[in-house]
Amino acid sequence: MKTTKVMIVEDEIFVANLMENILLRSGYEVCGKFAFGEEASEKAVDLNPDLVLMDIELEGDMDGIQSADIIREQMDIPIIFTTAFSDDN
User: For a tag site, which of 24, 31, 46, 81 has the least CB within 10 Å?
Assistant: First the structure.
């Protein structure tokens, strides 16, 4: 049976590692972890993930929505947006 490959795009290292650990324990393959949307957009085609977990707010000039748009132009894969951002207001 084919293992589902997941690419993680998350700039908070603790959150990225937590996601990776949960995915690995659940039987998924993590094919890449990236903190920058630019890098994720460039690597997605080569890594050929089955699913992308994409943080909305990322380091660098490109946010997760922009990165997801580029990935979707190149590939037909699902992208799930995530965020750890909170605002008490």
Answer: 46
User: Whole-structure pTM over 0.90, yes or no?
Assistant: yes
Q: How far is CA 8 from the centre of its chain?
A: 3
DSSP 8-state secondary structure symbol assigned to residue 35: S
**What pLDDT, in 10s, does the model give residues 54-86?**
999 998 899 999 999 999 999 999 999 998 766
Measured over the CA atoms of residue 81, residue 83, residue 88 and residue 89, the dihedral's sign is: negative
Q: CA–CA distance from 41 to each of 3, 52, 62, 70, 74 (Å)?
A: 22, 11, 10, 6, 9
Tokens coding 69? 């748009």
Contact 33, 41 (CB under 8 A): no
Percent of the chain with pLDDT over 70: 93
Contacts for 87 with CB less than 8 Å, ≥ 6 apart: none
